[in-house]
Known about the structure:
By secondary structure, the protein is α/β, with parallel strands linked by helices. It contains 8 helices and 12 strands.
Amino acid sequence: MNILIVEDNQDIAASIYDYLETLGYTIDAARDGLTGLHLALTKDYDVIILDLGLPGIDGTELCRRLRQDAKRLIPVIMLTARDSLENKLEGFQSGADDYLIKPFALKELAARVKALSERIRRIPPSQLQIGDLALNMETHDVHRAGKHINLNPILFRLLTFLMQNPHRVIKREELEYAVWQDNRPDSDALRTHLSNLRQAVDKPFERPLIHTVRGFGYKLTDNNAED
Ligand code: CA
């Protein structure tokens, strides 16, 4: 796991560095805000430990710019000696995920680093994959066995939900809600769209991935042994 420490106090930075290194983390350190921001935007970190008071741009500003410019959400723990409520609120408004007041126990910092990195790992990745079918939620690219598949927005939403919930039976109502929320069309609409989705995703290929579970709903799986 990669950690960035942005802290201008060398003693504090060094003690955090040493402690986290013994726990097996890979660590970079920056002494000022601009260097920290540059590293945060160009390298891949799991968690950033960020001091509030920094030369150059301060922690609040760094965090704000990071939230604006980073392509993904990187968890930030803000450190500060100033323990007023105002600073704390400022830190959270700029997008920090957690907060520690100096002096703090290194053990507590490590526990929070671990908790934050785990929380972020639970956020679903933008790339979904079931068997040879792949869908990218950011670029809206859908491929199967190397072939590009074109889907309209409704079919894309349908397939995204199915791929986010693979190998289990999904009720018709659940699918309808995922696509239309509370503005559900008449009951045949889902059937029609599913049929179109199968034409695009299953028909040209050897093995079907979308399965009807009669009387229950639908299931997306590449495990045909279950049929
Ligand atoms: Ca400082």
